[in-house]
Design brief:
Elements lengths: L1 H28 L10 H12 L6 H15 L14 H36 L4 H15 L2 H15 L16 H34 L2 H8 L4 H27 L5 H6 L5 H10 L3 H29 L10
Length: 317
């Protein structure tokens, strides 16, 4: 397991380096954002660009970029959105909003999705199973930003139950802030709930038809006892890794949702950095989201070995 983890981490770092280099070169090939004339920050940014070797070959520029990041965690200063401010400080200030929205989303999605999956599996081939399966396929097929518009129209505009946009401020755990976060939370949760429902239903249906379940019933266990004691334990071998993966990977799905609901997080910042040609900001957020995606894949793979000792990742036997 240790050897496998080390190999996956090295492969992740190599992949991250290649993606970062490709994005860096493509960004530097574009013209930089225009700076305002006779501004104090303009001189600072021009000096930083000179220090980062904007007029040198791309490979030299990338070497300077890596050296600054790895030795001083220096990602540069904002060229456009937050003129002259440190990119890392802005990122850290925006990260809590994204983390809180995604944390609420995954907390809502896990119990609801698993419960619906269990209900569909236990009521297989009934109208309950058909209804849940149909709704699941619809929710998986529709992008999350479509739910955002539907939620805004029905819950915010027609019924007036929820606000259109997220409340400003940093009191993320207050009731007013939670209510204002419900629209983006629901928009992110529907697709994740559908994913958990489909996975749980498929795995539990297969386990319930296994021979060891028949043996458990012949020993006197009721259907509910056999399901809880045996079926769910085997089902969780697949469901739990998907929970770990969704907890990390759901952040990558919040880009458009944060823009729609004005969530002051890194997703909204990412979109604005692209539109505003703020390249230092874009590079940091690209590295962040790439790392999140790669970590999600590693966490899912490694978790299999810890959840089920019979699984040995990377073993030849």
């Amino acid at each position: 397991m240790v050897k496998y983890v080390a190999q996956r981490v090295l492969l992740m770092l190599m992949t991250l380096l290649i993606i970062t280099f490709m994005c860096f070169v493509l960004v530097r090939m574009l013209p930089p954002a225009e700076l305002p004339l006779n501004d104090t920050h303009t001189q600072v940014i021009e000096a930083r660009r000179e220090a980062q070797g904007y007029n040198k070959p791309y490979l030299v520029q990338f070497g300077i970029f890596l050296k600054n990041v790895l030795t001083r965690f220096d990602w540069g200063v904002s060229d456009k959105l937050y003129l002259g401010q440190d990119v890392a400080e802005i990122f850290i200030s925006k990260l809590p909003a994204t983390m809180v929205v995604n944390l609420y989303s995954i907390i809502l999605s896990i119990p609801v999705g698993i419960a619906l999956g269990i209900c569909a599996a236990l009521k297989k081939n009934t109208w309950i199973d058909h209804t849940i399966s149909t709704l699941t396929m619809v929710c998986i097929s529709v992008p999350s930003f479509v739910y955002a518009f539907i939620i805004q129209y029905i819950l915010s505009y027609k019924l007036g139950w929820l606000p259109f946009l997220m409340k400003a401020g940093t009191d993320y755990f207050s009731w007013d802030m939670f209510v204002s976060m419900l629209p983006p939370i629901l928009s992110l949760s529907l697709g994740v709930i559908a994913g958990f429902t489909r996975t749980t239903r498929a795995e539990l249906t297969e386990v319930l038809t296994s021979e060891f379940m028949l043996l458990a019933r012949t020993k006197g266990l009721t259907k509910m006892q056999a399901t809880v004691r045996h079926a769910m334990k085997n089902c969780m071998v697949v469901v739990l890794p998907s929970i770990f993966g969704e907890f990390i990977g759901i952040m990558s799905g919040a880009l458009i949702i944060e823009k729609i609901f004005a969530v002051p997080g890194v997703g909204n910042l990412y979109i604005n950095s692209i539109n505003g040609r703020d390249y230092p900001m874009f590079m940091m957020l690209t590295v962040f989201y790439t790392t999140v995606s790669l970590l999600a894949a590693i966490v899912v793979d490694i978790s299999y070995g810890f959840i089920d000792p019979r699984i040995r990742m990377g073993s030849k036997k």
